[in-house]
Predict the structure.
Amino acid sequence: MSDLIQFPRNFDSYVQQAFLAFEGADLTATIDYAEKALSIQMDNELFNFVISLLEEQTDYQKAIDLFKNYKAYLYDSHALAEEDMLFVSLLVKAGHFDQAKQQIKQRMIEGSRSSDHQHLFDILDYQLQVIEKKEEENKQREIAAIVAEFKSFEILPLYKQFSILRKLEKLPLLALIPIAEQLLLSEKVHPLFKTDICQLLIKQSFEGSLTIRKESFIETYLIEQLKPIEKTSFYQDCIELIQTDIDLESASFLEANLFLHLSYYYPFENQAFSSPNAWIESMLGYNTSERDAIQLAEEGLNQLGSV
């Protein structure tokens, strides 16, 4: 005979305590006891009662977690039953928009097959409109927050500038261009950060001109005519010379520094360095014609060493 003590299943006891807590207006305790009861025995009436309380408390995430624990089959459902509609509604309220859209679309297929489901189909269509509206609101809030951060960008330390700069790619061109205009002209923005901005504008196919200032260089460029660094003639000519005429060990050293030096001066690489061959020879110590430009780039790059 086993010495283990067999504890009784307390479903009824937990249900009773849940409703006593409910009568005492203690919703937190009500939900806690009801969840304990559900963990022992699934009961649809009790489940729906808990979900209604969680909705009342706007704890939509916890309601979704309960669906995940006890009605996970709904994730694969195409039905338009009451529980399906409630599940979709909770996903929307909780802000799980991608999941909600997926769940809505797989049920709209079913709803489109019969006019009997037209009302439910219309509800799902409305939920999609709600999602689109909320997504747009969230997007506009995020854009406004990012734009606000850039108002103090130039006075921030480099590590904070670097962190904020990553957010530029989230901006639409309409919001990005005024910021890019300001930063590309500023003497307080690191040259490498300006290169990142230029590369982003190229990636987003911006068709327009902007004035860029780096070190002693300043010029207005049509952004659509700029190329990514790896596709510039200076870079490609250097790579060809390195791969053709340089030993393997020196080639690795040159290729690693080439991209960094060009990134520092881009798009002024042809003004900063007299030629690809001169840059290579200066890097290998054969001449000193590019020494000052190389040293300036190295000093600037070292500023970002700890960022």
Notes: The domain at 11-140 is CATH 1.25.40.10 (Serine Threonine Protein Phosphatase 5, Tetratricopeptide repeat).
